[in-house]
Amino acid sequence: MKKNIASDLMRKRKGTLMKLNVLQYLLINNLMYMKPQNGPFPDLCDFEGRKLRTFMNAIDLSGWQDDPSNPPMTTAEEQRQVTDAIRSDPLLMDLMVKTVYTDTSEKGGNCRFALFTSSRTNEAVIAFEGTEMAPGSPQWKDNFASANVSDSIQQIKALLWYRSVYKHFHLETRQVILTGHSKGGNKAKYIAILDETPKHCLSFNSEGFSDKFFQRYEEKIRERQNRIENHIVNYDYVSLLLNDIGSETYYFGYNYGSGGFAETHMANTFLRFDEDGKPHMDIDENGRPVEMREFDAFCNSLLRSLDNERRTSILKTMNKVLDAILSLNRSMTVKETLNTILKIAEEESDRRNIAYFMAYMIRYEQANPEVTKHINTVLFLFDLEGISQYVKTAEQILNWEQDIFFMHFSFLTLSSVAAAIVRWMPEWLMKRLQADLEKRGIPLSRAQLKQLQMILIQTEADLRTLTLSAEKLDRTVPENIF
After folding, report:
1. Which of 93, 128, 279, 373 could form a disulfide with 85 if both were Cys (CB 3.0 to 4.6 A apart)?
2. 13 pLDDT exceeds 60?
3. pLDDT tens-place string over residues 177-225
4. Residue 356 region, left (φ>0) first, then alpha (ψ -120 to 50), else beta?
5. Neighbouring residues of 71: CB distance < 8 A, sequence distance ≥ 6
6. Higher-pLDDT residue of 449, 335
7. Which residues pair with residue 113 across a beta bridge?
8. What is the pLDDT of residue 44?
9. How far is C-alpha 472 from the geometric centre of its chain's CA atoms?
10. Confidence category of residue 391, pLDDT binned at 50, 70, 90
């Protein structure tokens, strides 16, 4: 069921003029990505102390065209739609750009924060830009690091900046509203919990927090979680990471292009434009789809099965895999996914982590057969069907058996009899195994099969020792009764 919220989300507060609504906050978050490296945009930093209209009127997208050989996830036409939507909104155009901070240091990842104020309302809007979608980005690495710490480096930096700006611009006289998309939304929520001064927080497609964060800040979460709103595209894959805080509203996604399902996470995916160019956000009353909920449960179970050191290690490997996928800026084929995983697995620690992930997924699906189709659906939608194919390949090889020359062979008996299988397998036996897998629709080169052997022996060992974690649900903190 679709519901137009263009008018539903308008807010009036006692004693003030009309406030910004959710759609307007979303447009501000789209604005945060308008910078020179993303297109023909001026630098927002150059417009400090001026109205937002001066920045928007300086944007000229009339001659901008996408590179057909490498189309962006947010196209030139989509940027024009967003730009026109902001220009047609008097309240947004009247915002004052008070200050803009960009961290261009090596550890900063080119992140950007901005403070906007309005003479027509009493709001001070502080917006946090999301993660730079580039391989190796410090912001992207921080997403994975934050999964196993209570406070990450980038979260702490955002909090310190917020407190300095709050004091410098005397924001105690205003209603401070925090907002952000993706990593920016996570920073906004972090500040909303850690600092007593923000009035409200609106995040868009942002990830949650670690178990350690919940353990350390349980009382603050209990006291302040009601000030946080999470706005999420129904199939967004970042917002299901870790434990979220606050209310949740789900929306249908639009504008999927060259990036395929990866575009569910983009800030403009929330927006549907009608024939007149007017933007809308359409609520999905069904909430997060069942396959996304099941994938969330699997991720929680996986991470909670590991000790602290191993959890950090496997998160780093996951970062490498997703880095490789993001670097293509498009959907990854099954073959490319398989080659990527095998390449990353050349490092011993990554090979162990990939083997553990596969073993855990095999054992998890065996224990929860009803969710197998949901997990595979999510991998397919993520353009990661190669991982699903990879796990199926592992299962088939681990269970491979063949009678040859009146002798019975299996992968497991071979690997248990001689650990040297990692370095050597008889050529005739390799050919038989390769041909058998080819018939099953799993074409692997000789080199790939040998690489896979090394992973599978570790996978088989993990299958004998790992224990599934029964803790699948996100952490929550009940509200105070009184």
Report:
1. 279
2. no
3. 999 999 999 999 999 999 999 999 999 999 999 999 999 999 999 999 9
4. alpha
5. 257, 258
6. 449
7. 101, 128
8. 97
9. 19
10. low
Residue type, position 139, single letter: Q
| Nearest alpha-carbon partner for 289 in 374, 385, 383, 382 | 374
What is the predicted pLDDT for the residue at 381?
66
Supply the pTM of this predicted model: 0.85
Which token pair is 12?
A: 């009036």
**Cα 201 to Cα 188: distance, rounded to the nearest angstrom:** 7
Amino acid at 163: R
CA–CA dist 314, 356 (Å, integer): 9
CA distance 28 to 112: 13
Task: Determine if residue 120 is left, alpha or beta; phi over 0 gives left, psi from -120 to 50 gives alpha, anything else beta.
Answer: alpha
Tell me if 226 sits within 8 A of 219, measured CB to CB.
no
Contact 150, 218 (CB under 8 A): no
What's the pLDDT band for 18 if we cut at 50, 70, 90? Answer: very low
Query: Residues 319, 141: contact at Cβ < 8 Å?
Result: yes
At 461 the pLDDT is 85
The Cα 269–Cα 13 span in angstroms is: 29
Indicate the pairing of strand 228-233 with strand 200-204. parallel
pLDDT at 60: 95
Q: What is the 3-state secondary structure (H, E, C) of the chain?
A: CEEECCCCCCCCCCCCCCCCCHHHHHHHHHHCCCCHHHCCCCCHHHHCCEEHHHHHHCCCCCCCCCCCCCCCCCCHHHHHHHHHHHHCCHHHHCCEEEEEEEECCCCCCCEEEEEEECCCCCEEEEEECCCCCCCCCHHHHHHHHHHHCCCCHHHHHHHHHHHHHHHHCCHHHCEEEEEEECHHHHHHHHHHHHCCCCCEEEEECCCCECHHHHHHCHHHHHHHHHHEEEEEECCCCCCCCCECCCEEEEECCCCCCCCHHHHHHCHHHHCEECCCCCEECEEECCCCCHHHHHHHHHHHHHHHCCCHHHHHHHHHHHHHHHHHHHHHCCCCCHHHHHHHHHHHCCCHHHHHHHHHHHHHHHHHHHHCHHHHHHHHHHHHHCCCHHHHHHHHHHHHHHCCEEEECCEEEEHHHHHHHCHHHHCCCCHHHHHHHHHHHHHCCCCCCHHHHHHHHHHHHHHHHHHHHCCCCCCCCCCCCCCCCC
Instruction: List C-alpha distances in Å: 479 to 192, 214, 314, 421.
Output: 16, 14, 33, 56
Q: Which domains does the chain have, with CATH numbers?
A: 2-288 (3.40.50), 293-465 (no CATH)
